[in-house]
Design brief:
The protein is built from no helices and 5 strands. It is elongated. It has a domain of 47 residues: SH3 type barrels. With 109 residues, it is mostly beta strands. 8% of the residues are buried.
Length: 109
């Protein structure tokens, strides 16, 4: 018996979907992943005494409420109503109201 020398056929490239416009890169038609967290620009700066609500992924409220104790330009120290204290980045917080308990002005003596 002799060997049969048949050339192996070349594989054709898989068909690609058409591009959205002429000259578009093939990646342009891919679905874009949303960012894990969309930091919200706070309406106003957080100040000590402000009531805040915690935010989860995609800015969904967590249902945890607390009071801001200290702040800087990036973080805020929050005392949660049912937990202890926690330092969080300000984009993870949503201001609910201005002050937790309005402080009465002391009577002049």
């Amino acid at each position: 018996m002799g060997r049969i020398n048949k050339p192996t056929p070349k594989l054709r490239k898989a068909p690609q979907p058409p591009l959205s416009h002429v000259g578009a890169p093939a990646e342009a038609d891919r679905a874009k992943r949303p960012p894990l967290v969309q930091p919200s620009v706070p309406d106003s700066e957080l100040n000590p005494g402000d009531r805040v609500e915690g935010l989860a992924d995609f800015g969904r409220p967590t249902g945890e409420f607390g009071t801001v104790e200290q702040t800087n330009e990036d973080d805020a120290l929050v005392k949660w109503d049912d937990h202890g204290r926690m330092r969080l980045h300000q984009p993870w917080l949503k201001k609910v109201s201005k002050k937790a308990h309005p402080v009465a002005k002391p009577a002049s003596a």
